[in-house]
Amino acid sequence: MRDGDLSSAESAIRTAQLSGITLPEDIVNIVLRYHALHGNTEVFEGFMANILTGKPSETQRDLHIKSYLRDPAVFASRAFPTRAIDLLHKYEVSGLHAPMKSYSRIISSLFSVCPSPSPPSICSTLDAPLGRLAANSQAWDLFAHMRYVAHPTPDAHLYALMIRACASASSSPEPERALDLWTEMLDAGIVPTEGAYDAVIRACAKAGGEWVSEAIRFARQMRDRFGRGSSEVGGGDLEGVGGPRTWTALLDGCKRVGDLGRARWILAEAVRADGLTDEMMQHIFHAYAAYRPPFKRGATRIVNDGAVVASALNQEGPLATATECPSDPPPKSAGVSSDSGAVPKDLAHMATMPSFSHLPPQSPGEVVAEATALFDRILQDASPASRSSSNTPPDPFAGRFNIRLTPRLFNAYISVYYSHASLESARDVFERLFSSFSVDLMGDSRAYVDALERCALSRSHERDIAGTWADELWTRWEELELEWASGATKTTVTARLVERAHTAIRRVHSLNGDVDRAITLLRTFMSRYPPTALLPPARNPSSVDGDAPSMKKRTITLFAKPPILSTRTVLNNPSATPRPLVRLTSAIGPPDERVPPLLSFADVELLHARLVEQGRVKEVGFLKWACKAYEGALRTRREAVLGAVPAGEDVP
């Protein structure tokens, strides 16, 4: 086996068996471990059937399950490990429970399942695979089932895995459940590992709000237990806290509460320790976007010849690095800084580099300048030949960043401009990066959706720019959407992103007074994704014969849950359809991520208001009919999924 001669090793084992020599289990497991690692399930089972004379040991059962998880059809595509789960339950039925390691393997595989494909051509068929939401629910059910039938007390690794799942992005964070598991682990006398601490810190930080303080408390406990080193300069209550995973978790919390001070300190520590990662840098840019600087131009009082004069909102020539501001700016839009007009249009021509002093940025211009300097550092480190010492930010960010340029990083960076800069500045940066030959970020759907939504939040003096830019973005977006609708799987477009993009473009045209264009886009949306798409074609045998009356009735049979997700109460585990005996998920089940794009009244509320103002009764009626059509189709789908309409009964 050391020389890679697998066939000779198998022949030697068979020869020893024919000679009546009983080989140690470790020798046989070497071959089994090789087949399990490469996912050779058929070869694994054939070798195990020919060599083993008795029942497989715990290690061999674990390797057997591992072979199914490493199957290229499951491992490479991150598919739902149905066969591995079936094998696990079959071992339980036979009285041979798999070791806890096997349950941990399957649960970890379930948490890494990719989302279900959402193109209408795929999600409306019986062959649509189970996706991430169903897999996450199954993982929690399997965890409860394991404690009921096999291993009542999980180990530290499995506890850490489940606590980390409480911060899953596929659902809302559950810090309460994470703390329950943490307390349960301590009550069982299990010593928490660094991974368990990182998991509970991440679960609390991801919940945001007051939970961020709880995450910091756990970080201090972790520091006291494991004695992390740190520069202990400017860290405050985080002095001594270190480690890439811990920093990443804390940054996730900082960005949710806009705590830029802590985020900058963590960034300095990560750069100093050469532990900066792509995910950390994304959180840093999000923290800049969420930060609200204390300086507000509109609240400034100007002292002139000893007299205090309240500064008007229509003043020209804003402070410091400000650009021209309209005489009557509109109210603050959600998610957009009220001083967004006070940033330079072209930060590349700024005369001074931000100092990154201990004091956080005091104005939107300073926020954007710091974020731009950090992103320039990433670009410079990506191409060392272009790096210039004059453009290098001063300490504490003087180390190398070594960050990969990814669409997620770009989206995080441009979000700083969406929050603190004018729409014109954001558009210029967006176009400059997308047209740059050195930055290959094309094709990310979320970038276009975020840009369209920023246009939809434009102020009155930005409406012309928003309309022009939105038309350009929409042309590019439609290429991605049509590719997705045709069944392409290697795309980041999802049904929910399609809804957001269409809602944003309709809002842009409604704000600009082009109601007819918004109505046209709405009709286009309904033609691509009609309400009937929420209900897959029914398989009514009588309709095949062309019987006209039978076409008036539809039989909903395509929404039955797979046996593995069935929530029917059972007292034993039948071998035909093995499934967890105890579940943590509700009988309703996980949300269906295979629902195609749909329309709700909230998506067209502004358009409806504009139509009412103009007295266009016919279009208002069409809008109401469209919303009710989707609402009715969604209700019918939900009733079929929940079992309110038994399979086989007629649905009007």
Automatic annotation (TrEMBL):
Positions of region (Disordered): 319-343
Signal sequence coordinates: none
Keywords: Repeat
Name of one Pfam family that matches: PPR
InterPro entries named in the record: PPR/CCM1_RNA-binding (IPR051222), PPR_rpt (IPR002885), TPR-like_helical_dom_sf (IPR011990)
PPR repeat placement: 155-192
Record PANTHER family: PENTATRICOPEPTIDE REPEAT PROTEIN (AFU_ORTHOLOGUE AFUA_4G07240), TETRATRICOPEPTIDE REPEAT (TPR)-LIKE SUPERFAMILY PROTEIN-RELATED
Protein's UniProt name: Pentatricopeptide repeat-containing protein
Organism: Suillus fuscotomentosus
